[in-house]
Design brief:
The protein is mainly alpha-helical. Helix content is about 35%, strand content about 5%. It has a 4-stranded mixed β-sheet with strand order 4-5-7-6. Strands 1-3 form a two-stranded antiparallel sheet. It has a two-stranded antiparallel ribbon with strand order 2-10. A hairpin with a 2-residue loop joins β8 and β9. α5 runs antiparallel to α6, α9 packs antiparallel against α14 and α15 runs parallel beside α19. It starts with 11 loop residues before the first helix and ends in a 5-residue tail after the last helix. The N terminus is likely disordered.
């Protein structure tokens, strides 16, 4: 559905939004039947408007239903690059296939799944159309409380959708009333006008929401804190570097208002979850505790009811996992008992591994999956049994020389871990760790079908172990793993977190840094880093991810149950990756004592590689590093780098495949040519070539 064919007189205006999710206004809308057959007249009644309000939650599911989930948000940045699958390669390399028309196999795309520049543009206007209908007709709702609730949700979604459009494209068409008939003549708003509208909608939502009232189910419902968080983001965006040509008059006021809004969200929601693992790794199934945390401000809702899946299910479990079934030589078979499918879309860059404190930052070891268990014995003479480690990824640091002379790769005799062996229990079949006992080491000479190390002789060698032609052998992240799927390629059932309080702290810290209030910024940063440190008593070698939801899956019987146990060993490679660290359950400390001077070594190395100097630049890039450590893979990296004017700088420094990224072009996305070609002048005539060119972003 294109913006230029919106109609108010037929059912197609709004049924698209409803088909994505829900319908009637009960406490848990995901338990209700779909109602996508209503006429638009129904949505001019009080009950119809309330039903339509609930349906707005369905619109946000789109973001995670297909390849665009990562192509638009994570590719072409410092954090991730292509693995061997090249479906959306052009979004990472910025080559000429990233253009207003889009790419097909006939024009060089790897397959038909490549994301079109029109995908986000078209979809956001579905939700905007629904929000416009609610806002325009809200007065028919006599109950003031229900009316305000509907207006809060409508302004929030309209603001959010315009936020996504503005973050990607800059100024866009501001359609703020329900369209009458077929409309093909529009005016493109400026960046300044578009951000003013985004901020206005979030302010309206903030004012209409009644605090932290969970009207549609905790963990899903948008509240005043949700609106405050996104108001903070929008104000900070307007005050940031991408808008420096025109934003001078707004900066001071926007930063102060953003701090005020962020403070409301932080105070209202009561702080961060106690353990970083609880946010993603401890997902045990639909509506589990991981989805109910006060830290979560917004999530795209999903459950196990196929009737509510709608047009776009949750496919995010496919994209972060390496191609383990391929490079393992068959020792590790894929299946529903492993929480991720090995689509190998997103390969972490060297920067992404190096930006962590490998010893003291628990987020690294609670996020990266570094061990897969053998669930299929290929060679009985190899001395490997079911449940032994089948894939071992050692995430060492550049200055580590432990493994300089060892041979890594597939189907080789694993090195003798003489420096680390003997301190810990050796691995054997059936060994499964707990949070407080057991650690990973190996028998000297133990055969491991596949092993990898990041560095040898000070060189980053990880991508060299499996190239076809691009590496598909890497440590993936676990934030989307889902062992509750009913089929190997079935929809995931877990919610997708879209905003949480840790980011609110980092947004406020950035506002303080921009105001040169570095002490306040450091306090917020230290709040986030305190949660990231190891707590006393933690087993640093323990690992878990959303595969554990398979324990509550109806498929968890017979051979599938055995495969689950053998594949998921609850262990990581902490001690193999940090061979000089003695086994410990002591707490660690990540507190900053000075900011932005005297930063941790890993940050100073990043800043040196970027050539960064000056207090503000050091502070900004440290916060960007902290966002990687805290929010890796959480669907917002491209917009963050574009907003801060650091996209070109950091992609060139840390993403060797972003070879064609160009200043004054790739900070924005191309406006879809299909939309421009459908436009008409007010008199019904076609736009001239120059008029069409005026609609397009620079460089395209």
């Amino acid at each position: 559905m294109k913006l230029n064919i919106l109609k108010r007189s037929s059912t197609i205006l709004l049924c698209g939004a409803l088909a994505l999710g829900s319908t009637s206004c009960k406490d848990d809308f995901l338990d209700e039947e779909l109602t996508n057959q209503y006429s638009t007249e129904y949505f001019e009644t009080a009950q119809g408007l309330e039903d339509l309000t609930v349906s707005l939650y369905g619109n946000i599911r789109w973001h995670f239903g297909y390849e665009w989930a990562y192509g638009l948000t994570l590719y072409g940045t410092d954090e991730f690059t292509n693995a061997n699958d090249l479906t959306n390669e052009m979004w990472n390399t910025y080559d000429n296939r990233l253009n207003p028309v889009g790419a097909t196999p006939e024009t060089g795309a790897a397959n038909n799944n490549a994301t079109s520049p029109a995908a986000l543009w078209d979809q956001m206007y579905y939700g905007i159309a629904s929000a416009n209908t609610i806002i325009a007709n809200a007065e028919v709702i006599e109950d003031e409380g229900i009316r305000n609730r509907c207006l809060a949700h409508a302004h929030f979604l309209r603001g959010y959708n315009y936020y996504r459009l503005a973050a990607q494209y800059g100024g866009v068409v501001l359609q703020l009333e329900p369209a009458e008939g077929v409309v093909r003549n529009f005016t493109r708003a400026t960046d300044e006008e578009t951000w003013a509208q985004v901020i206005s909608d979030f302010r309206e939502a903030y004012n209409y929401f009644e605090g932290e009232v969970y009207t549609y189910g905790k963990g899903v419902t948008w509240t005043k804190a949700t609106a405050a968080h996104f108001l903070t983001k929008a104000l900070l965006f307007r005050a940031s570097e991408r808008n420096e040509d025109w934003n001078a008059e707004y900066i001071q006021g926007d930063l102060n208002e953003a701090i005020e809004a962020a403070t409301y969200a932080i105070d209202a929601r009561g702080g961060l979850a106690a353990d970083y693992r609880d946010l993603y790794a401890n997902w045990t199934g639909v509506d589990s505790e991981a989805e109910q945390l006060d830290e979560i401000l917004m999530a795209a809702p999903h459950n196990a009811d196929a009737s509510t899946t709608g047009r776009f299910g949750n496919r995010t479990y496919n994209y972060f996992t390496p191609q383990f079934s391929n490079f393992s030589g068959g020792w590790v078979r894929r299946g529903v008992w492993i929480g991720g499918m090995d689509f190998q879309r997103l390969r972490p860059t060297e920067y992404t591994y190096a930006v962590f404190d490998h010893v003291n930052d628990s987020r690294m070891w609670k996020t990266f999956k570094t061990v897969y268990g053998v669930n299929n014995v290929i060679n009985a003479d190899a001395g490997v049994e079911l449940g032994d480690p089948g894939i071992v990824m050692i995430l060492n640091t550049k200055d580590d020389d432990t493994y300089n002379d060892f041979t890594f790769g597939a189907n080789i005799q694993n090195p003798n871990w003489s420096d680390v062996d003997g301190r810990l229990p050796e691995w054997r079949q059936g060994m499964r760790q707990t949070e407080t006992s057991g650690s990973l080491t190996s028998t000297p000479g133990q055969f491991v079908p596949n092993s990898l190390v990041l560095y040898q002789n000070g060189q980053y060698v990880s991508p060299d172990f499996k190239s076809t032609p691009i590496s598909n052998f890497f440590a993936g992240i676990n934030k989307t793993d889902d062992g509750s799927r009913f089929a190997e390629k079935g929809d995931a059932h877990r919610d997708v977190t879209m905003a949480r309080l840790a980011e609110t702290y980092l947004l406020r810290a950035e506002c303080y840094a921009r105001l040169q209030q570095y002490g306040n910024a450091m306090n917020d940063l230290n709040t986030v880093r305190a949660r990231a440190a190891w707590k006393a008593g933690e087993n640093r070698s323990y690992y878990i991810d959303g595969s554990v939801a398979f324990e509550n899956n109806s498929l968890n019987t017979g051979s599938a149950a055995t495969n689950y146990v053998n594949s998921n060993l609850n262990m990581n490679t902490y001690y193999l990756s940090n061979p000089d660290v003695e086994v410990t359950t002591a707490a660690s400390d990540l507190s900053l004592t000075s900011f932005p001077d005297n930063l941790p070594d890993e940050d100073e190395a990043v800043l040196a590689a970027l050539g960064v100097s000056g207090s503000y630049e050091r502070a900004l890039h440290f916060i960007l590093n902290e966002r990687t450590r805290e929010h890796l893979g959480e669907w917002m990296r491209w917009e963050t780098l574009s907003r801060t004017g650091t996209l070109i700088q950091r992609a060139r420094a840390f993403n060797p495949q972003a070879t064609n990224i160009t200043e004054n072009k790739h900070e924005l996305r191309p406006v879809p040519q299909s939309f421009i070609d459908g436009l008409l002048n007010e008199d019904g005539s076609n736009l001239s070539p120059d008029m069409k060119a005026d609609w397009q972003n620079p460089g395209y």
